[in-house]
Amino acid sequence: LKISPDERLLYTFVEAKIFEMIALAENHGINVYDGLLRYPRGKNSLEKILTALLFVNIDRRPNLNFLTSLPLDSSRYSKSIEITNRVSSVLDKAPLSPENLFYEVFQSPNTMVEAFKEQLRLESQGQVQIPPALPFFEEMLKDAPQIAKTLPQHSQSQQKIHRSHRQQMRKLLETEQNTNWCRQLTSAFEAALQRLKSAHTQGQITAYPFLKILPKKSYVDLMIQAVNTIVTDTELQHVSRSLFLLQLGERVESACLVWRKQNAGIIDELVNVYKIYADFFTAPKRKLEHFREMWLRALQMNAESGVSLDPEWPKWSNQICMMVGQELYRILYDHLTFNTRALKPQDPENPHLRQDAPVLFEVTSDDPGAAHYEIRVHPILLKWYKASGRHASLVFNPTELPMLCPPLPWIDTKQGGYLLSSSDATRFIRKTTYFPGADAAADDDLDFDISMIPRVLDSLNTLAACPWKVNQPILDVMLLVARGGGEKSLSMPETKSLIPVPRKIFDRTLPREERISAYRQFMNIRKIHDETRSLWATEMYRLSIANEYRNKVFWFPHSMDFRGRVYPCPPHFHHMGESIVFHYLFN
């Protein structure tokens, strides 16, 4: 084959560039010939990379195997090798049954794929609404005998009027959110972007890059969802401003992660790989010993044309989440208003008359030892939500709920668990400003090379593969007990025994000793109310999730801490805890 001088010059240039890139990768500790599949790649990029490597060295073949190899610098892991070899020698001797104990959970691989798609839909939404199985704490107080005496009684006709207006109030609230709130927040968001862009071009550190990832409507929807969350949380607990800012920033990060994965083709690739994994999972006989190996084989079978499921995008730090949450909260606090006349009858002469008021305001904590701000919703808007029934939904992140399909097997400490949401197999105790190598004292024993002890991940994967169901008779009994006012002997917070909180303003004419005694009584009663409210919120979360999943089969992703103890990832509802909680479930 004759090559023209121009083509020869081009080949020489391309060859030099390829050698330059290989040298640059090796300088950063990346071996492009070993473990090539472990690094991020785009769709059909593997073929181009292999072509380039074979172009410069046709005799050296890259290792196209997902099984991780030993690290280049084994001396770094000499202590880890000494420890993990003892563990591996024990785990490797554990007998494995050739029978697949979980193959009867699904009727077919297609059934498992359908469950996977439903879980994928929930995680793509970012939030899941669950109807509460118990009344809110303030509603339960009305049934307490001592408190019910102090409350006005409503007639049945008044209750019927309330029910007839609920649908109308809900429609008005949806109109307010979809028109006025969207218009206000969109205008304020665009103005904030211009302000941040100007500061960003001057070299200041701002949230501008993080507020340009999603479409504007997505940020507006996230802010409206944040208001809905505050309304629900005020019924259960006090809403700390700093905690709300962090959580709002984390919600934006999760939404950006899903959006970027969708655009990069990662979600489509995940669907294809999970279909192959479903064939392994539902087979009566084990084709491979461990779920980790099943997942690696599924990745291997789709590696040539697929994209990497681990793009290795850096996780936002707490400072970034706070900064993003602060900007969005500033928009909500300064610009979001509502019509306070919505609950009043319309004026026939001026039906479009509005009287706007801010949606949010702040108060300082009553605790003199804690100087922090709490976020409150305007009382009239809170009544509007209650009149429409919109406050009566609990909102959870997908990572706070069980999964409707078997979790992704852990193949290292960062890949596995939930489908789209990021999670870790190990629970590190880290400083907020920690990054590897910054502080040797912050490193712990879990910083090991997982290729030396994969059986630990296999143990987590086996636990996560166990299906669970709700014990419906026990759940029904506990719901009856809770709705009846609780029972301490069953670890159920009691609301029926609470007494009214006295007034904080005391008569100045009383003697000093009586005022001190009255103040102590007030603080003790309020403390009991606050503790019961907190316990009631915990029980409401647990029973509401259990009631939502009562007819479903579900799974718990697991992680482990620095002691090697394993825990389910969902925080509110799982099989660990008090004995009565364990009886909610069976597998």
From TrEMBL:
Organism for this UniProt entry: Hymenolepis diminuta
Domain DNA-directed RNA polymerase N-terminal, residue spans: 117-465
Superkingdom to which the source organism belongs: Eukaryota
InterPro entries with a match to the protein in the record: DNA-dir_Rpol_phage-type, DNA/RNA_pol_sf, RNA_POL_N_sf, RPOL_N
Pfam families: RPOL_N (PF14700)
Alphabetical list of SMART domains matching this protein: RPOL_N (SM01311)
CC terms in the record's Gene Ontology section: mitochondrial DNA-directed RNA polymerase complex
Molecular-function GO term, any one: mitochondrial promoter sequence-specific DNA binding
Any one GO BP annotation for this protein: mitochondrial transcription
Protein name: DNA-directed RNA polymerase
